[in-house]
Design brief:
Elements (H helix, E strand, L loop, with lengths): L1 E6 L4 H14 L5 E5 L11 E4 L1 H7 L2 E6 L1 H13 L4 E5 L17 H5 L4 E14 L2 E8 L2 E5 L7 E7 L2 E8 L1 E5 L7 H4 L11 E7 L9 E4 L4 E5 L7 E5 L5 E3 L3 E16 L5 H10 L4
Parallel strand pairs: 1-2, 1-4, 2-3, 4-5
Antiparallel strand pairs: 6-7, 6-17, 8-11, 8-15, 9-10, 9-14, 11-12, 12-13, 14-17, 15-16
Length: 285
């Protein structure tokens, strides 16, 4: 079995964690792969080094060391390559992680094949201008259309396929997957959704309305979002907190169900609501 290990190994604590994980996962029939830029940090007969893109192609399991942001990024890239991801929490919350840093003995279950794979739907968010797609991103958490740096509300129209669905005056709007419902959408007042649901949740950011509420929609619909405000040149689309794309009044943001599903490895019997209770409610975060 080939394990590709991802994470910011420039950090001393993450690098130390990677060395522990490497020792546990490597064996006569197993190989651990690291990014080629870390060739001086790791050694051993069962360690090898590749480019990041080749790491995804070569592995059986993508092992992620870090917090939810790192896990989310790696899980998306692994999904595109049809590979599962195993998160080991090296951050603060670790909501997507299967194993805490003090639970590395659970990796024995992975070596024995004693684990489950939790599939999560993703979004595909495309920016269309004058009939041409200028960017496409896949999102495990959310696609966020917001006002950017300009301190004024923006007017947003949302259509479901060909029907008018919603008109919002707000700082922005979040289109979230069930996985992302515990992230930015939750902070903006949205509901927590079970990750096995096939739906999206639309949550406004600081809406100028006393009656605004989140809306849950079936994932079979395509949402077409446009900005009507005269400050629309300052609107931006951000997918999973990554590089923003500027949106103007000639743009339509099309959000639909991605063809890819993230595959998260589970080695503990905790169900989703136990994790919510432990990592969100009891921590008060």
């Amino acid at each position: 079995m080939i394990f590709s290990v991802f994470g910011n190994l420039d950090k001393k604590d993450v690098r130390a964690l990677a060395q522990e994980v490497s020792k546990m996962l490597s064996g006569q029939q197993n190989k651990v792969v690291f990014n080629e830029k870390y060739t001086t940090s790791f050694s051993g007969g069962n360690c090898s080094f590749m480019t990041e893109s080749d790491m995804y192609k070569a592995c059986d399991i993508a092992v992620v060391l870090g917090g939810d942001g790192t896990t989310m990024k790696v899980a998306k890239n692994a999904a595109v390559n049809g590979k599962p991801a195993l998160g080991i929490n090296g951050g603060r919350l670790g909501f997507l992680s299967a194993v805490e840093r003090n639970e590395l003995s659970l990796l024995e279950s992975v070596l024995k094949g004693e684990y489950a794979v939790d599939e999560r739907i993703m979004l595909e968010a495309s920016v269309i201008k004058n009939g041409k797609i200028i960017s496409t991103s896949h999102c495990l958490n959310d696609a966020v259309l917001s006002r950017g740096d300009f301190a004024r509300l923006i007017d947003i129209d949302i259509k479901s396929d060909t029907a008018d669905m919603l008109r919002v005056r707000a700082d922005g709007v979040i289109i979230s997957t069930p996985t992302g419902s515990t992230a930015y959408s939750l902070a903006a007042g949205g509901p927590i959704l079970s990750p096995d649901l096939n739906c999206f949740v639309i949550t406004s950011i600081c809406p100028h309305s006393l009656m605004d509420r989140s809306i849950v929609v079936n994932s079979k619909f395509t949402l077409n979002i446009s900005v009507r405000s005269d400050v629309s040149n300052n609107a931006i689309l951000t997918c999973d907190g990554e590089e923003p794309v500027e949106i103007d009044q000639d743009c339509i943001v099309s959000v639909s169900l991605s063809d890819y599903k993230a595959k998260l490895i589970k080695v503990k019997p905790d169900n989703f609501y136990q994790i919510v209770k432990k990592k969100i409610i009891e921590r008060g975060s």
